[in-house]
Amino acid sequence: MIEVQDVTKSFEKEPVLNNVSFTVKRGSIYGLLGSNGAGKTTLLRTIAGILKQQSGEVNVLDQSVFENEDVKQKLIFMPDSLYFLPQYTARQMASYYQEIFDSWNEDRFQKLKAVFQLDENKKISKFSKGMQRQVAFWLSLSVMPEVLVLDEPFDGLDAVMRQKIRNLLIQDVADREMTILISSHNLREVEDICDHVGILHKGEVLLERELDDLKSDFHKVQVAFKEDNKEILHEQLDILHHTSRGSVQLYIVRGAESQVKETIQALQPVVFDLLPLTLEEIFIYELGGAGYAIENILT
Ligand SMILES: Nc1ncnc2c1ncn2[C@@H]1O[C@H](COP(=O)(O)OP(=O)(O)OP(=O)(O)O)[C@@H](O)[C@H]1O
User: Fold this and answer.
1) Do 225 and 144 lie in a common domain?
2) Whether residue 62 is found in the same domain as residue 185
3) Domain count for the chain
4) Strand locations in the chain, DSSP E?
5) Whose CA is nearest to atom 31 of ligand 1?
C-alpha cells in the first residue's frame, strides 16, 4: 500500500507538488491522471524513493521509502524513459535482477517467455521501443513485486500486447494482491484497468475517487422542451458544459443520476437521453472547470 501525506516538493524554489495526499490500498490499481507538467513523474519518483520530498510523508508498505532498501526490494518503478545496462541482453538483465532482488522468480521469467516471445540473447538496445517496453514488463513481473509504480507504461505497445500486459497485471493483483500505481495519458487504458483515479493539476490533487463512483456522478444529457427551460436547469443542476444543437440541448451534468432524471422529467421534456461519460470526458470537464483550456489537454 502507498500513503502520500501532505507532500511538498520544489525544484530550485519552483513548487511542483503542493500538499499532495492520497492513498493506494493494497491490491488496488490506481490511475494518476494530469495535464503536462502537473507533477506526475515527480510524484512517482518520490514514491519510488528516488527523490526526497521537502515536507510531508511517503510511506510504502507502512515504511518511509526514501533510502529504505527493505522497501526497494518490494517495489518496482518503471519510468517512462526506460534504462537498461548498456550492451545487456534480456537474459543478462535477468541475471542482474536476480542478484539484486531476493524475490526474483526464475520460473516466472521462463513462463513469461511464452507471452513476450522475445529473443532473450539479443541485445536489448537492438529491440524496438515497444519490444524494450515488453522487456521491462518481463523483468519487472519476474521480480514479483508487492508494489508496481508505472509511468506511461503503455507507451509504444501495440493493442494485442497492451491487452496481454493488462491481463498479467490484473492476474497479479487478483492472485497476490499486488498494488499498482499507473500514471498515463492513455485514459482508455486507465479506464479499463484502474479501480481508483486521481487527477493532479498544478501540483495539487484536484479529484480522487473510486472509478465506478466517479463515473456514476457525471452524465451527458440530451434534452428538448416545448418551452425554454434553460434558466431553471442552470439553477437546479450542476452544469459543467452546455451546447445547443437547434432545439436540442446538450448538457454535461454532475450529480446523482436519480436527481438529474427527476429534475428534468419534472419539466416534461419532449426529448430526453441520459448517457454516461467516458473517463476522458470527465477528465476534460474537470480540468476545464479548474481553468485548464480544454484544447490543451489531450496529448
Ligand atoms: N529535475 C528537475 N529539475 C527541475 N525541474 C523539474 C525537474 N523535474 C521536473 N521538473 C519540473 O517539474 C514540473 C513537473 O514535471 P513532471 O515531469 O513531474 O510533470 P508530469 O505531470 O509528469 O508531466 P508530463 O505529463 O508532461 O510527463 C515541470 O514544470 C518540470 O519542468
Assistant:
1) no
2) yes
3) 2
4) 2-11, 14-24, 29-34, 55-60, 63-64, 75-78, 147-151, 179-183, 196-201, 204-210, 218-224, 238-245, 248-254, 271-276
5) 37
